[in-house]
Design goal:
Largest sheet: 8 strands, parallel
Structural class: alpha/beta
Strand order of the largest sheet: 7-6-5-4-3-2-1-8
Helix content: 40-55%
InterPro entries: Ala_racemase_N, PLP-binding_barrel, PyrdxlP_homeostasis
Number of domains: 1
CATH architecture: Alpha-Beta Barrel
Distance between the termini: 22 Å
Pfam families: Ala_racemase_N (PF01168)
Strand content: 15-25%
Mean pLDDT: 97
Oligomer: single chain
Order of helices and strands: HEHEHEHEHEHEHEHEH
Protein name: Pyridoxal phosphate homeostasis protein
Radius of gyration: 16 Å
Family: Belongs to the pyridoxal phosphate-binding protein YggS/PROSC family.
Shape: globular
CATH class: Alpha Beta
CATH superfamily: Alanine racemase
CATH topology: TIM Barrel
Low-confidence stretches: none
GO molecular function, one term: pyridoxal phosphate binding
Bound molecules: pyridoxal-5'-phosphate
Length: 217
């Protein structure tokens, strides 16, 4: 589809929802995309990117940041505790805070490095056993724990179950964030970002609809 079409669709979804497009950050998820596609998006002015894997991002982004000013990098994939330091050093936002051990480790790394990426608590809105994220029933307690650790948590993130109507999952996430006083909502991907915008998404994570199918491992 491409970046300009996505921007038009974001504007249309915002108009329908009576929202200002400036309230919706488009994160271009560039995981496993060939370099020329990522460079083309940078040339077209895109500056906010998402990656799933710390090591892939460590290889890819330092040279691109040397060439393009103002890049903002979001980690949207699961984070292993042993990569917490590298993640804090590289990323400007981390969307996958989902367990106390990781929160504690990140708090230590924020202290050690003096860097404080904005953070999202990932909620497993469908309570799917194979999926990352804190269970909705434990979300309030976990968010309080993160805030008590002084983590810069600004919002919640979810990935609705495949083959489910995402609307109820987006609403559940919105309710959890609202009752915990968190303003940001990271929700919506290529297939459902318009629905997410209608439900209040502030950060949408769009990969294949911008770049095409993922090709590299
Ligand atoms: C890969 C990925 C995306 C982007 O997915 P598309 O369907 O290609 O838009 C968004 N969020 C997360 C967490 C992802 O892993």
């Amino acid at each position: 589809m491409g970046l300009s079409e996505i921007r038009q669709q974001i504007a249309a979804a915002c108009a329908l929802a009576g929202r200002d497009p400036a309230q919706v950050t488009l994160i271009a998820v560039s995981k496993q995309q060939p370099d020329d596609r990522v460079t083309a998006a940078l040339d077209a002015g895109q500056r906010v990117f998402g990656e799933n894997y710390v090591q892939e991002a460590q290889r890819k982004w330092p040279p691109l940041r040397d060439r393009f000013a103002g890049v903002e990098l979001h980690l949207v994939g699961p984070l292993q505790s042993n990569k917490a330091r590298a993640a804090v050093e590289l990323f400007d936002a981390i969307h996958s805070i989902d367990r106390p051990s990781l929160a504690q480790r990140l708090a230590r790394m924020v202290q050690d490095t003096g860097r404080a990426p904005r953070m999202f608590v990932q909620v497993n809105t469908g309570d799917e056993p194979q999926k990352a994220g804190i269970s909705p029933a434990q979300a309030d307690g976990f968010i309080a724990e993160c805030l008590a650790l002084d983590l810069p948590v600004i919002g919640c993130m979810c990935i609705p179950p495949d083959n489910a109507d995402p609307t109820q999952h987006f609403r559940l996430l919105r309710d959890i964030a609202a009752r915990n006083g968190l303003p940001a909502l990271s929700m919506g991907m290529s297939a459902d970002f318009q629905t997410a915008i209608a439900q209040g998404a502030t950060h949408i994570r769009v990969g294949s609809a911008i770049f095409g199918a993922r090709t590299t491992g």
